[in-house]
Amino acid sequence: MSNSPGKSNRKARQVLSIFAGNLIQGAGMSLGCVSLWFSAQPNSVPVRVTAMIAGYLLIYLTSHSSAHYVVGRLCGIRFTHYSVGGSNHASSYPPVMRQIFEQLPFFAAHIDPQPLKSVQPAAKALMFGAGIVSTVLFCSLAALFAFRANVPGGLILLIVNVVWQVSSLIVEMRQGGDLAKAAKAFRF
User: Fold this and answer.
1) pTM (2 d.p.)
2) Could you give the CA distance from residue 108 to residue 16 in angstroms, rounded to a whole number?
3) Helices 45-74 and 154-173 meet at what angle, rounded to 10?
């Protein structure tokens, strides 16, 4: 999520229209759900594990920015475009993870800055917080589904997910993170 293209240390590799960004992210979420469903079907273990991991990753990569957009639009916030690039918080990770997160295709919804000035603080806070909340919620539901469906490796995914989401919440509370932006919106 970005207030403007120039304020982020993120390297955008692609700029997308709102329509294209929503279409791709919606397809990613849908494919993620189908892949998770497929992982619960009676297939070979490698197929089930691959489908579980693919479904989880698709949900992880597409749930965050789309939630900013949906909640933002419901709160009257306008967006100009999406961009696709590395993580805004890659520097928060250790060296090897940093390099990976700089390359992953994360979406960012870009806010139209002029109308944002007139939006109520609570609406801004909801929009800023929606991304991480949706990521934690949808990824946790995906991991829980895999575990409950007895997908091989489902328990490992559930444990890794809990650790990962807790660390994500901590990162998002730091300066520049979405939860920090949500808290700041309430202070003005």
Assistant:
1) 0.88
2) 10
3) 30
Nearest to 131 by CA among 48, 72, 89: 72
Q: pLDDT per residue over 22-45, tens digit each?
A: 999 999 999 999 999 999 999 899
Quote the distance between the C-alpha of residue 9 and its chain's center.
17
Under 8 Å between Cβ of 109 and 2: yes
Burial of 85 (0-12, 13-18, 19+ CB in 10 A): buried
Length of the chain as a residue count: 188
Distances (CA, A) of 146 to 13, 137, 171: 32, 14, 26
Mean pLDDT across 55-77: 96
Report yes or no: 81 and 110 within 8 Å, Cβ to Cβ: yes
Residues 6+ apart with CB under 8 A from 15: 81, 82, 83, 84
Q: Is the pLDDT of residue 4 over 70?
A: no
> Using one digit for the tens of pLDDT, what is the confidence trace for 104-154?
888 999 999 887 888 899 999 999 999 999 999 999 999 999 999 999 999
Tell me the C-alpha to C-alpha distance, in Å, between residue 14 and each of 76, 105, 110.
26, 9, 13
What would the two tokens of residue 65 be? 């920015």
Helix (H) or strand (E) holding 15: strand 12-16
